[in-house]
Design brief:
five-stranded mixed sheet; 12 strands
Length: 308
């Protein structure tokens, strides 16, 4: 029996790497430590180290650099990990669907978004997803972007959607949409006659600004400071929706992410392209500590489908 078992392992090694080794790779990319990866996978630290060594031997190249007690993935490891994303998502969906025994999701799906996205984009999609999954409890919360990131990192929500730049080891980012700022103006504003608004056009103009907790605010301020263009900030506000309403009331102009409000502005306000690029990235956020649940993956797919 021992000889047969050894022979089987050799055959498996000749056929390539194992699923367990790929799981170890993903866990190490996300955590950087063999002990933490082992806890996640239910393996001992030596078993994690052994699996990594065997995978590197099979591929014939090193995947991680050892820096200050951490394993830092090199470009080769990151490339392999990116290829594995769809594979492990598919395996998770298969496992969850088998466990549920039905096409309708069960359990709980916890969704979070900041006010503008929560109020102006997600409700009909969340409603459709809830109707399609009557056995699933859906919890939908409206949070500030900072609170949203914290909740995702601490695994208190399954999926979030935000346009705030996020860099957090415990949060996985998945791009939904890339956009650039537009200029919103009162419909009778003199600049509304122009096809494109330039940075210099806003010299001395009354300006409606988003509060400094927004990731785009820092970049916007930096661009104006660098160009030496002075705005007259008459009000700061927390959401793009409220900024647009202040523009409608004639308080000033604003630079806003067009998603998701550009087609919902109504009368009294016009939008024009802004010549200086101010990028926004709207992303799904999920906990990095585990793959998205089947319900979360299907919800993300529904959002993508609706947007397209």
């Amino acid at each position: 029996m021992p000889e047969k078992s050894s022979s089987a392992k050799q055959e498996q090694r000749r056929a390539g790497f194992t699923l367990r080794e790929l799981e170890v790779l993903r866990a190490l990319v996300e955590t950087g430590k063999t002990t933490v990866a082992g806890q996640r996978l239910g393996l001992s630290q030596p078993a994690v180290s052994r699996a990594l060594a065997e995978l590197e031997a099979t591929l014939g190249r090193q995947l991680f650099d050892r820096v200050g007690g951490r394993l830092v993935p090199n470009p080769e490891a990151l490339a392999v990990n990116d290829e594995l994303g769809p594979i492990f998502s598919a395996l998770t969906r298969i496992a969850n669907r088998s466990a549920a025994g039905t096409g309708s999701h069960t359990g709980t799906l916890r969704i979070a978004a900041p006010p503008t996205i929560a109020h102006r984009f997600l409700p009909p999609i969340v409603a459709a997803f809830t109707n399609a999954n009557p056995q699933l409890e859906v919890v939908f919360e409206v949070l500030s972007s900072d609170a949203l990131v914290t909740n995702i990192a601490e695994d208190r929500h399954d999926v979030g959607l935000t346009d705030t730049a996020v860099s957090h080891d415990s949060v996985r980012n998945d791009l939904l949409l890339a956009t650039e700022a537009i200029c919103a103006l009162p419909s009778r504003h003199p600049l509304a006659r122009r096809e494109t608004i330039r940075l210099q056009d806003l010299e001395g103009q009354a300006f409606v600004a988003l509060t400094r907790r927004h990731s785009g605010r820092t970049l916007t301020d930096r661009l104006f400071d660098k160009a030496g263009v002075r705005r007259h900030i008459v009000i700061e506000t927390a959401t793009a929706v409220s900024a647009a309403e202040f523009v409608r009331e004639g308080l000033g102009v604003a630079l806003l992410n067009p998603f998701p409000i550009v087609h919902q502005l109504g009368n009294g306000i016009v939008v024009r392209p802004f010549a200086t690029a101010i990028p926004y990235r709207t992303c799904f956020l999920t906990p990095a500590s585990r793959p998205p649940s089947l319900a979360a993956a299907d919800f993300i797919a529904m959002v993508r489908k609706r947007l397209s």
